[in-house]
Amino acid sequence: MKKSRILSLAMAGALCIGLLAGCGSSNDSGDAQSPAPATGSPEVSGTPAGDTTASTSGAAFKLGGTGPLTGAASIYGLAAQHGAEIAVEEINAMGGIQFELRYEDDVHDAEKAVNAYNTLKDWGMQISLGSVTSKPGEATSVYNYQDRIFALTPSASSTAVIEGKDNVFQMCFTDPNQGMASAQYIAEQKLGSKISIIWKNDDVYSKGIRDTFVAEAETRGLEIVYEGTFADGNDTDFNVQLTESQKAGADLIFLPMYYTPASLILSQANAMGYAPKFFGVDGMDGILTLDGFDTALAEGVMLLTPFNADAEDEATQSFVTKYQEKYGDIPNQFAADAYDCVYAYKLALETAGCTPDMTAEEICNKLIEVFPTITLTGLTGDGAGITWDSTGAVSKSPKGMVIQSGAYVGM
Amino acid sequence: MTFLSYLITGISLGSVYAIIALGYTMVYGIAKMLNFAHGDVIMVGAYICFFTMSRLGELFEPGSLGAMVVPPLAGTILAMVVCTVLGVVIERLAYKPLRQATSLAVLITAIGMSYFLQNAAQLLWTSNPKIFSSVVGTGKVELFGGQLGISHVTIVTIVACVVIMIGLTLFTGKTKMGKAMRACSEDKGAAQLMGINVNTTISVTFAIGSALAAIAGVLLCSAYTTLMPTTGSMPGIKAFTAAVFGGIGSIPGALLGGVLLGIIETFAKAYISTQISDAIVFAVLIVVLLVKPAGLLGKIMPEKV
Amino acid sequence: MKALNKTSRSNFLTYAGVIIVFVVLQAVMAGGGLSSMLKGQLVPICAYVVMAVSLNLTVGVLGELSLGHAGFMSVGAFSGVVAAVSLQDAIPFVPLRLGLAMVVGAIIAGVAGFLIGIPVLRLKGDYLAIVTLAFGEIIKSIINNLYVGLDGRGLHFSFLSDTLELEEGGRTVIGGPMGVSGNMPISTFTAGFILVLITLFVVFNLVNSRSGRAIMAVRDNRIAAESVGINITKYKLMAFVTSAALAGAAGTLFAMNYSTVVANKFDFNTSILILVFVVLGGLGNMWGSIIAAAALTILPEALRQFSEYRMLVYAIVLILVMLATNNPQLRAFFAGIGAKLRGRRGKDSQGEGEASHE
Predict the structure, then answer these.
(1) Do B128 and A290 touch (CB under 8 A)?
(2) Phi-psi sector, C125: left (phi>0), alpha (psi -120 to 50), beta
(3) What confidence score (pLDDT) does residue A148 get?
(4) Residue A32 exposure: Cα atoms within 13 Å on the Cβ side
(5) What are the residue boundaries of the structural domains of chain C, listed by start?
(6) Cβ-Cβ contacts under 8 Å, A293 against chain B
(7) What's the CATH number for C6-345?
(8) Best residue of C138, C161, C220 to probe chain B, by most B CBs closer than 10 Å
């Protein structure tokens, strides 16, 4: 017994030494291997992005972001990372402004997000893509503010992310914005009068949308007949919530949640033979591309989303094709938002006349001035263009979509 | 009528917990270790079945009898084979060297194994959820003129649970290997002295437990159709709770515990609050354990002085 | 040194080790030699060290497996944040406010530990473990539905739905599933260091006191302990509540280091993570817990160079370390070295007792 203790101490010590060695080397190797676009695609072969010299010569802006790349939430983080990678690849191939992109894993956790942010800071990040999800985004945006590193987050949608921080901007709608828009849409289009809401009780995103939806529904005379919740570990069986909705006579179910639980709700409602209208938010986007999902289940589901992978326009088509070639999936709105973020940076940096040899703070000050003045025609702008106000909130119109025969159709 | 329909929902949820709990309790009863990787073996089984079904499904005409029977059956059997091998390999590599170590050391190794399987699955199969198509179709049996419906998956799960429970009870009670298992669970040293190969016995236990995990994975994903690398972990913990609830180590206890847990969870959601249903489930568990400290059907081992 | 007995000496070395590490780190930091990544981890490491040492009191010294230790951290975190926000105007001096918040966190977590300990400690082994897991989940579920607001009239509480109806200028401190938002991070490495020292002081004094010996007697043989007149419930509760209170203080330290905290952070996985620190560091071995907590907190960060294989490598390292530390040959090898060292140092042996967890 005593021996095991000596041994464990020795092992722990060995581990520590290994760690310190790892820490020492991680900076160098981080530089060497970090440029994500250097994946052998012919487009980037002409650029120096894969080269260690690129990071030291000041030829490229160092762009960093954190997101869940492992764990249960990793679909969102990986999508954002992939979307940003494609944009960086395209921009670098064009010549002109060059980016060096590095994404770090935050496992959808505030503590790990701060660690990831600090790793990026050590790497020399000049501009930031914030965090992909809301709670980690709140934690890192405080440091973005303190360290004066400009951030444009693709998808951290809670208001606390940008509140009181002059240099943190969002590419996505804020949660209250979506709740409000959804209630307005339902009332204006007279989609339903008795509404049931099923939301995720341990999720900031879901709760944020639900709160403003309820408030707005009240002022617009929509009756909320039932509210059911679920949480992590309790997110597979929705029979109770659906039966109660049916009993309460709901003719529309509002689903402020991501598409994975939504797909279960749709299939369980179908199995029950209950067919109300379903109304989702941007988290619902992606449901049609789920591997093996019977799209007939989603027939008639409505959602507000900034992005539509089936859109006919050339920009979307080329993005979707590239994404599919490279990663084998169809991109969702997280990927599209991150893609737009990188292009927004390109536009803003060009407008502001920033160069990669400037410090993060200099860039930050210029970007704060420039961002409220630019208009980006992005994938998620619905043609009308994307603008920002000085608080960091985005202004773009959500697209109302309805699913018909397995595809989005504008409402 | 809503009451009955909630009862059915509860039983179908509970039967899924029960089938996972059977595997848990089997391994715990014999090897005396909490195999936290069990939930992740379930996930692996479900993935194997998913891929087999989608590959084989292309070979058959949609809607034909062959398409309805062959791919699900082949998928389930292949999943069982792969999981059995996986379970035995895990046992050999990670748990066997710790036979003499404290049970906590084994517990931590099992947790490491669980992380390993989850992350390996994410790298292999990405974190995008897959939609599992039920192995027994999506039909249901209607009662009372269609007012109540019991899905085929529920019926199959319950039948599978009962069959497995009876099978395991007979196996541990009647066969030579089963007796060896019980002997090992009581006293490994004495069993060895009686000429029982303890290592083989424990390997066989893991093989059976993992094959059960594969079946559980297929049925879990047939009932709740999203499949992700983390699919197994929460049902794993719930099933562990169910196994303790019924008396860990007791095979009928696992079935009872699982079904009760499902019913309590559903009723708590329906009649109290969806927001705190988990808290209610765990509170009931605590109360039961305080009244019956070894679970509902567990044996209380008197302490020897 | 000769005057000190062996346990005092081992404890003294632990204190000295912690102080030296602190001084060295401060010096390196002053010289700017510490990366932001490591600097950012100092406070969470302190919190995890306190968590590990306090859990070691339950698992190693008391000998009861707890799978819900993060629940106490959660109670401490949220009550500490409420205290800190409430005192924001009354006490402008930040270290004092942080200290008071930690005391509040510790007291409330201690009370929770007491309430939970009374029923839980009647159970044994894996049943006790599952009940602690259940309490951890219940705490998480409750805090996910708890709303606390602060306005001119004082604190307001509501459960399940947000019915706080705060006055103008009021502030929601805990917003149910949204947790704490927009908190001002005030934890510092120095505060963390002091908390670690206090924790060690409390734990060592408890373990080496008459009560501590009673606790270990209960662990080693409950029936024998009972037969010599030791009040089992009392001593079990003493260890359990101390452990919970220390975890509460660690929770406050942790929560006050970030602008946001959610109840889901303190879930089953966090409890397990802390248990891993304890087991890896050695049951009953506080110094081991400290090293393991620090090393395993840095490990996933140091593995970032493996990018997507990071957590896979972490899992493999964890399994290999467990296998290696429990491997008879390796053990014998290290025992040989240990014996030689002991031979040179005379009849020195290891500190306090070792838990046997069969």
Answers:
(1) yes
(2) left
(3) 93
(4) 7
(5) 6-345
(6) 131
(7) 1.10.3470
(8) C138
Distance from the Cα of residue B53 to its chain's centroid: 21
pTM of the model: 0.86
- Residue B275: which of A229, A273, A291 has the nearest Cβ? A229
B89-137 pLDDT per residue, tens: 999 999 888 888 888 888 889 989 999 999 999 889 888 888 888 887 7
Residue B302 lies in a domain: no
A262 → chain B, closest CA residue: B226
pLDDT tens-digit profile of C245-265?
999 999 999 999 999 999 989
Task: Identify the three-state secondary structure at position A100.
Answer: strand
Both structure tokens of A81 = 């990372």
Q: Is it the case that residue A314 has pLDDT exceeding 60?
A: yes
A244 touches chain B (CB under 8 A): yes
More confidently predicted of B138 and A392: A392
pLDDT for position A117: 94
Q: Which residue of A has its CA nearest to B234?
A: A233
Residue range(s) of every CATH 3.40.50.2300 domain in chain A: 54-173+316-397, 176-305
Q: Which of A28-32, A97-101, A213-217, B86-90 has the lowest mean pLDDT?
A: A28-32
Note whether C13 contacts B: Cβ–Cβ < 8 A: no
pLDDT tens-digit map of A351-370: 998 889 899 999 999 999 99
Of the candidates B2, B138, B275, the beta carbon closest to that of A243 is on B2
3-state helix, strand, coil in chain A (%, to 5): 50, 15, 35
Alpha-carbon distance B149 to nearest alpha carbon in chain C (angstroms): 32
Instruction: Name residue, tokens 């094959």.
Output: B211
Q: How many residues does chain A have?
A: 411
Q: How many domains does chain B have?
A: 1
What CATH code is carried by the domain that includes residue B172? 1.10.3470
CATH topology of domain A176-305: Rossmann fold (3.40.50)
pLDDT in tens, A275-301: 999 999 888 877 887 778 888 888 889
* Binary contact (B115, C133; C-beta < 8 A): no
Q: Where are the alpha helices (DSSP H) in A34-61?
A: 52-57
Is B304 part of any domain? Answer: no
* Residue environment code for A18-32, b if the CB has 16+ CB neighbours within 10 A, otherwise e: ebeebbeebbeebbe
Say if CB B268 and CB B281 are below 8 A apart.
yes
- Closest partner residue to A78 (CB to CB) among B54, B127, B274 is B127
And the tokens for C228? 């010599």
Token pair, residue B12, equals 């179908």
CA angle B98, B101, B105 (to 5 degrees): 85
Tell me if B100 and C328 make a contact (CB, 8 A cut-off). Answer: yes
> Token digits for C204?
């060592």
Instruction: State the Cα–Cα distance between residues C289 and C58, nearest whole angstrom.
Output: 13
Q: Does the beta carbon of A236 lie under 8 angstroms from any beta carbon of chain B? A: yes
Is the pLDDT assigned to residue B87 strictly greater than 60?
A: yes
Sequence letter at residue B79:
A
Q: Pick A54-173+316-397's CATH classification: 1.25.40.20, 3.40.50.300, 1.20.20.10, 3.40.50.2300.
A: 3.40.50.2300
Q: What range defines the domain where residue B158 resides?
A: 2-137+144-291
Hey, how many other C-beta atoms are within 10 angstroms of the C-beta on A290?
21
Angle value at C-alpha A101, between A96 and A102, nearest 5 degrees:
165
C325:A109 CB<8 A: no
CB B297 within 8 A of CB B45: no
